[in-house]
Design brief:
198 residues; 61% helix; mainly alpha
């Protein structure tokens, strides 16, 4: 029990430990290094968890970074720069959809001015004005629906031809929302003129 080991036994245990180092360690086996003292472990944890900056400085830097990102995004919306556009406006499919909508005239983009005119007409109490205003409402809504159906059919056909392997999910809804906005208020700004095919 307390006798000294022979050279053969020492060599044998050396081989066994060399073989074990290449194998994964059993969870119950000793880890091969001393456990650190509690004070050492706590100081290491504190050093890892304490930020290099104080809280106010970190918040200030975060605000500045956010401000810079928003400024870049606004610039990209004005110029059409793909790198800094929001995720919903990025990609070749979305760019084509924007150009497709911007190159045509849609009744839907005149909806707001027409709505104001019709509303004013409906407030006039003279004779048949309210009936005329109601008929105008119906006419505008029917024109917008027909126009939107035509837009979605033509756009789906063009997207199938030009981007057969690209994901096109949400492209038609994106086009319909863009067609509802007045041309000068659209973001990203239109990059093509009316009548110019994308």
């Amino acid at each position: 029990m307390f006798r000294s080991r022979s050279k053969e036994e020492k060599a044998l245990t050396g081989k066994v430990t060399a073989d074990l180092s290449t194998q994964p360690r059993h969870p119950q086996a000793p880890k091969g290094r001393p456990t650190p003292k509690r004070s050492e472990a706590q100081s290491q944890r504190r050093r890892a968890s304490t930020p290099t900056l104080d809280r106010k400085e970190a918040m200030r830097r975060q605000r500045e970074a956010r401000r810079a990102d928003l400024a870049r995004q606004r610039q990209a919306l004005a110029t059409g720069d793909e790198r800094f556009l929001p995720a919903r406006d990025r990609g070749p499919v979305r760019r084509f959809v924007r150009d497709f909508v911007d190159s045509r005239f849609f009744v839907a983009e005149m909806f707001l001015p027409l709505a104001v005119v019709i509303l004013v007409l409906s407030l006039i109490q003279a004779g048949q004005m309210q009936t005329i205003a109601t008929m105008l409402w119906l006419g505008v809504i029917v024109l917008i629906v027909v126009d939107s159906i035509g837009l979605s059919i033509r756009l789906k056909k063009q997207l199938k031809q030009r981007f057969p392997n690209e994901p096109k999910r949400g492209a038609v809804a994106y086009a319909l929302m863009r067609s509802l906005q007045m041309r000068r208020l659209r973001l990203p700004k239109p990059q093509v003129k009316r009548g110019e095919r994308p």
